[in-house]
Amino acid sequence: xxxxxxxxxxxxxxxxxxxxxxxxxxxxxxxxxxxxxxxxxxxxxxxxxxxxxxxxxxxxxxxxxxxxxxxxxxxxxxxxxxxxxxxxxxxxxxxxxxxxxxx
Length: 103
Known about the structure:
Number of domains: 1
Order of helices and strands: HEEEEEEEH
Strand order of the largest sheet: 1-4-5-6-7
Strand content: 25-35%
Radius of gyration: 16 Å
Largest sheet: 5 strands, antiparallel
Distance between the termini: 54 Å
Helix content: 25-40%
């Protein structure tokens, strides 16, 4: 994969994660869009930092994008095609963790 196509794919993932982030914010849920770098250190060698794919983090839930599908990682993994369905699912998970428990 060329650098241009890699950059384009990352920008698309950031845009898709931004859609979910906006929908979560509309539900009152704060999330953080994370762009990570991987740095490998070896003695007497320079290895440039490599970008890793972006993630959206809401509490202990992470959301990533792979092949146009949203992947929600918690104790299990769920897949969605739509940002709205993804945000609704994450909202329900967070509400279940934070909401009142009725005996």
